């Protein structure tokens, strides 16, 4: 299997940015009834800036690519999602250190650390109707598939399916964190925008691994 190197994560960034651009109207639409209708705009701004930053000065290591994307999201996205996704990617990148290429298992451990960083920063737990409801099942599925001896591409495909299911499962949840929580009961019946964008990002990772 192809190792996870800087080129792999640059291809992921291309694919993720394309997905965010394509789905930005839908992400903003999901953020209308239970938020402030800017999630697609926020994600689009952040990922376009990250792509530019990485193109201008491509980091030589996979960790460096993730740290640069994370830093750029934090500095360009005003909404809650910027610091949260920024923390995820920066933390994951730092976990990868200076290595030129890492295994899928190392990537999984780094993503787990990044998602833990999101939980610490945002204080959300599973069931709170946030991006964590897609991210945690994705990391769990990735772990399960790799532990069962699956290859990286299949394991990432399982993670993407779990993230999609996790995003869909936010519909009946009542939001307990972020803007949507201000709505209380009225947040029920809508899919969380951040969980939806998380599923897009994990799907882009699976697509990148499939090649
Ligand atoms: P804002 O709410 O500031 O406008 P966005 O619309 O870009 O920011 O992002 C909203 C998304 O951020 C939500 O759908 C949710 O998934 C996520 N989110 C908000 N607060 C938290 C939190 N405390 N922990 C985890 N995720 C959160
Ligand atoms: Mg918003
Ligand atoms: Mg906002």
Automatic annotation (TrEMBL):
<dbReference type="InterPro" id="IPR050861">
    <property type="entry name" value="Dihydroxyacetone_Kinase"/>
</dbReference>
<dbReference type="Pfam" id="PF02734">
    <property type="entry name" value="Dak2"/>
</dbReference>
<feature type="domain" description="DhaL">
    <location>
        <begin position="7"/>
        <end position="207"/>
    </location>
</feature>
<dbReference type="GO" id="GO:0019563">
    <property type="term" value="P:glycerol catabolic process"/>
</dbReference>
<keyword id="KW-0418">Kinase</keyword>
<dbReference type="InterPro" id="IPR036117">
    <property type="entry name" value="DhaL_dom_sf"/>
</dbReference>
<dbReference type="InterPro" id="IPR012737">
    <property type="entry name" value="DhaK_L_YcgS"/>
</dbReference>
<keyword id="KW-0808">Transferase</keyword>
<dbReference type="GO" id="GO:0005829">
    <property type="term" value="C:cytosol"/>
</dbReference>
<dbReference type="InterPro" id="IPR004007">
    <property type="entry name" value="DhaL_dom"/>
</dbReference>
<dbReference type="GO" id="GO:0004371">
    <property type="term" value="F:glycerone kinase activity"/>
</dbReference>
<dbReference type="GO" id="GO:0047324">
    <property type="term" value="F:phosphoenolpyruvate-glycerone phosphotransferase activity"/>
</dbReference>
<protein>
    <submittedName>
        <fullName>Dihydroxyacetone kinase subunit L</fullName>
        <ecNumber>2.7.1.121</ecNumber>
    </submittedName>
</protein>
């Amino acid at each position: 299997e192809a190792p996870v190197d800087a080129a792999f994560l640059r291809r992921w960034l291309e694919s993720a940015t394309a997905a965010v651009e394509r789905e930005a109207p839908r992400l903003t639409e999901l953020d209308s009834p239970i938020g402030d209708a800017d999630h697609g705009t926020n994600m689009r701004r952040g990922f376009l800036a990250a792509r530019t930053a990485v193109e201008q000065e491509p980091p030589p290591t996979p960790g460096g690519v993730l740290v640069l994307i994370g830093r750029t999201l934090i500095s360009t996205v005003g909404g809650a999602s910027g610091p949260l996704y920024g923390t995820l990617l920066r933390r994951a990148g730092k976990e990868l250190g200076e290595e030129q290429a890492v295994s899928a298992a190392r990537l999984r451990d780094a993503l787990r650390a990044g998602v833990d960083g999101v939980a610490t920063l945002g204080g959300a737990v599973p069931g709170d109707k946030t991006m964590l409801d897609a991210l945690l099942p994705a990391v769990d599925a990735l772990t399960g598939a790799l532990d069962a001896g699956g290859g990286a591409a299949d394991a990432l495909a399982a993670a993407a399916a779990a993230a999609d299911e996790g995003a869909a499962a936010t519909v009946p949840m009542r939001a307990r964190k972020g803007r949507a929580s201000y709505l209380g009961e009225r947040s029920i019946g809508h899919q969380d925008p951040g969980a939806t964008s998380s599923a897009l990002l994990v799907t882009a990772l699976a697509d990148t691994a499939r090649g």
